[in-house]
Amino acid sequence: MSEKRTGAQVMCEALIRNGVEVMFGIPGGAIMPFYYAMWEYRDKLRHVLCRHEQGAGHAAEGYARATGRLGVCIGTSGPGATNLVTAIADAMMDSTPILAITGQVGSHVLGKDAFQETDITGITMPITKHNYLVKRAEDLPYVFEEAIYIATTGRPGPVLIDVTKDAQQATIVPNWDIKLDLPGYKPNYRPNLKQIREAIKLLLHAKKPLIIAGHGIIMSGAVEELRAFAERTRIPVITTLHGIGAFPEDHPLSIGMPGMHGWVHVNRAIQECDVLFNIGGRFDDRVTGKASTFAPNAKVIHVDIDPSEIGKNVRVTVPIVADARLALQAFLDEFPADREAFAELHGHASDWMEHIREMQAKHQPKQQYLNRTETENMSLPPHDVYAALTKALNSRGNYRVVTDVGQHQMWAAQLIDWYRPRTHITSGGAGTMGFAVPAALGIAIAHPNDTVWVICGDGGFQMTNQEMATIVQEGIKNVKVAVINNGYLGMVRQWQELFENKRYSGTPLSGPDFAKLAEAYYWKGITVEHTSQVEAAIEEAYATDGPVLIDFRVEREVNVFPMVPQNKSIDEMILESPHNS
Amino acid sequence: MKKHTIVALVHDRPGVLSRVVGLIRRRGFNIESLAVGHSETPGVSRMTIVVEWEDVEQVVKQLYRLIEVLKVSDVTNDPTVEREMALMKLHAPPAKRPEIVALTEVFDAKIVDVGANTMVIEMTGSPAKVQNFVDVVRPYGIKEMMRTGRIAMVRGARGHTAEEYVESANGHAERVPAMN
Known about the structure:
Helix content of chain A: 25-40%
Strand content of chain A: 15-25%
Number of strands of chain A: 20
Radius of gyration of chain A: 25 Å
Strand content of chain B: 35-45%
Number of helices of chain A: 25
Largest interface: A-B, 33 and 34 residues
Number of helices of chain B: 5
CATH architecture of the largest domain in chain B: 2-Layer Sandwich
Helix content of chain B: 25-40%
Shape of chain B: elongated
Strand order of the largest sheet of chain A: 3-2-4-5-7-6
Oligomer: heterodimer
C-alpha cells in the first residue's frame, strides 16, 4: 500500500483497479514513461498497437459499444493527441464511455511551444464529458478514479486525461484512499414517480400511441423491461438507428426505423400518433426531420438521463429524467394491477397497429421494397449483398455488425434483420467515415467468439483501412469486411443526383484493388462482381480461418430510399429516383 | 433578443471558467459581461453572466452538464440587487475639476486619485446608474476605463447557495428537480 511507484505505474494500477483489461494506442516521446511501466503489467493490461490514433480511438469505442464497458485509447502529445480528436468527438455524440490518455510535454515547458506540444485539454473541452491536465503524480490516483467514474456513469461519454511527462516519471507513494469530490455531478437515475403516473394516465387513454426506443435502452440494459412494457401495453415499437437491437424486429409489435431513411409507415405513424413515448432517444434531427412539424398531434413523454436533452428539439408533455431501465421498471411497477385498466388501450392499440400494418403493406419494406424494375438489369445491386448477408447472419448466429457512414450504413440498418442489443454498432451522431474497420478491432477483441462483420463503403474504408495490419498483428481472425464498393462517396452522390442536378462534384472515387490490398495485409481477399457470386463469397469468408475482405463491386448509382430531404417533414418522403417514376 | 442575467455557482477547479465560456461561445452568443469571484462557500465560485440569448433555458440545462457546475439560475425576471463598479481615469485639467467633483458627488462616486491632469474615479451602483455616469463624464475625456461587469443577487429570503450541493456530495440529490 505504501510502496513507492512512478506516476506511470500509478496510471497502470489505476486502470487495473478500475477493471480495464485492454488499451489501444501508439507510443511517442511524451507518453514513453507510461509505456515503460506498462511492460511490467502486461499480463493484466493488454496493449494493442494501432496504426493511427484515430484507429485507436474508434477501437476503444467499438470495445465500449460492444460491451458497455470502458474503452481506453492512448496517444502521445501533439499529433498523437490531435489524431484522437475525431474518435473523441464521435464518442461524445454517441454517448460512448471511453478514456483517452495522452502524454504531455514536461510541466516546466507547458505553454512554451515545446516539441510536440498541443493544448489537448483546450482542444477537447467541447467534445469531452470532462477532461484533465495532470502535472503532479500525486493527483493521478484520484484523477483516474474520477475520470472513469464520470465516463461510465450517467449519460456515458469520453473523458481525456493529459499527463505531463514529469508527472509520469515522478516517484511517489500513491494514496489509494479515494473519496470522490463531485458536488456538481449527480446523475439522476431514479424517475420521479409522479411523472411516471402522469405518463401512465396519458398512455392508458391514448388512441394512437407509439414507443420510440433509443440508444438508452441498450446502454442501460433495459431490453427485457422494454419488451415487458410493450407487451403489457401492446404499443407499437419504433427503434432508432442506435436503438436497433433494443427490440427484436421479428416481434409482432416491432415496426422499424424512423427518420430520414426510415420506413414510410413508421414516419406516417409518427405524424399521426397522439402519444409518443420516447425512451432513451434524443430526437436527433435525422429522426425528426423538420422539428416544427414533427409528430404534430402527439403528446410527448420523454425519458432521458440527460436533462439537457429534454425539450431540446421537441416539446415535451411529460419529462422524465431517469435511467431508461429504472424508468421502465417504475412503469411496470406503477401500472394498474387491474387488467381491465388496459382494455381501452389494448383496443385502440390493436386498431392502430392494424392501420400501421396496412400502411406498411402498401409501402412494403425490406427486400421486396427494393425489388423493382430499376434493379433488374444490374449485375450486382447492393441489396443482394444484404439479402445474402442477412441469410448468413440468421443461419449462423453469433455475430456483431459494425457499419461505417453512408449509403451502405442505411441499407444495413434497413435491410438486415436485427434482434439483439449490441449486435449493430455504427457511428450515428457524428457520422464518422472511417469508424468501422478500427471499431471492428475493438469489437473482435471484446467478443472473440463472434464473427464481426464490417460493412463499409469504399470511401470510408480507405480512411482507416491501415488497422487491417493491427488486426493481423493481434492474431484476430474473426473480422470479415464487406466493402460495398460503388466507386463514389455514395450518399453525397445521391444528394447530388436528387437535389443538385447530378453535379457529381468531388464524389467519383477510385480505389486500389481491395482484394489485392487485403492480400498485401495477409488477409484473404475476394472480389465479387455478380449476384451469383455473393453467397459463395460469404461462405468462403466464414470458412476461412482468418480475416477476410470481400470487395462487392456493386451497381454504382443506386439510392437509399425512402428518403426525407433535409428540413422537410418526415412524411414528405421520396420513394424512388424521379427519372424512374 | 433579450438580455439575460445568469448566476452560476461552480466548483472551483482549473478550467471551469473556460468550460462555461466555451459552452456559450459554441452557440455563437456574445457575452456582454462576466464577473467571477468567491462565494460564501469555500471552494465554490460565483459567476454573473450577462448575455443576449433567445433560448436561455436550453443553455442553462447544458451548463448543468458541466461537471463543475453546481447551480445555475436565470435571474432576469427576479427581483434582484445588481451592482457594477467602474474605474475611470478622466482628463481633468485644474479648470475642469470643480465640475467633475460636483458630478461625482451627485452620483455618489468617489475620487480615488488625482494627478496633474487626471482624476481616477470609482463609481459603484446599478449598471444603469454606472452607465449614466459614464455618459455624463464622457465629454471631459475618458482616458481609461475598466468596468467589473454586473454582479447580481436575488432579494429576500430566496437563496442561491451551494451548501446543499457540497454537503450532499455523496448523496443522491436531484440535480434538476425543476425538470421532474
